[in-house]
Write a structure and sequence with these properties.
Number of strands: 0
Number of helices: 4
Oligomer: single chain
Protein name: DASH complex subunit SPC19
Keywords: Cell cycle, Cell division, Centromere, Chromosome, Chromosome partition, Coiled coil, Cytoplasm, Cytoskeleton, Kinetochore, Microtubule, Mitosis, Nucleus
Radius of gyration: 47 Å
Order of helices and strands: HHHH
Pfam family, one: DASH_Spc19
Distance between the termini: 147 Å
Organism: Lachancea thermotolerans (strain ATCC 56472 / CBS 6340 / NRRL Y-8284)
Subcellular location: Chromosome, Centromere, Kinetochore; Cytoplasm, Cytoskeleton, Spindle; Nucleus
Structural class: mainly alpha
């Protein structure tokens, strides 16, 4: 029985030696493989001289491709800018009109016409000329109302 046990131990030792040899061989082979892989995958920079004609042609192609896009975007931008300026002018004039109304309301100069104090300012996309004309008409209306009030107070006094 001891003899079979010693044979088992010898067989086990030889199997362990065989496995350790195999592991070391695999490590060596994988190191070589890794080095080969690294050398193959490592980038190599290769520079070539390109003729000046090719460079100029590429620049022209790029300009031909980009210039229409830039013009289109520039046109859209200028249209948007004009629209925003018009909106800003409209808002500024609306602010002026509303501040005049507030000043008239709080200064005690209440107008006798109830419709005048309840005028609504409606913001629309008007041109600058239309807004200037509206401003002039409102100023003329205010002058006429004040002259009517003067005439009425002159008749009473």
């Amino acid at each position: 029985m001891t003899e079979s046990l010693s044979q088992c131990c010898d067989a086990l030792e030889s199997a362990v030696e065989l496995l350790s040899g195999t592991v070391s061989k695999l490590e060596n082979q994988s190191n070589l493989s890794n080095q080969l892989t690294m050398s193959l995958l490592q980038p190599r920079r290769v520079f070539e001289l390109i003729p000046e004609y090719d460079i100029q042609r590429a620049k022209l192609d790029l300009i031909e491709e980009v210039e229409p896009l830039v013009k289109s975007l520039s046109g859209k931008l200028s249209k948007s800018l004009v629209k925003l300026e018009r909106e800003r002018d409209t808002l500024q004039q609306t602010l002026e009109l509303n501040s005049l109304r507030l000043n008239n309301q709080f200064s005690g100069e209440e107008m006798s016409d109830p419709d005048v104090s309840s005028d609504l300012v409606i913001m629309t996309s008007s041109t600058t000329e239309e807004l200037d004309q509206l401003k002039k008409l409102k100023a003329q209306k205010a002058q006429l109302i004040s002259s009517i009030q003067e005439i009425q107070s002159g008749e009473q006094g």
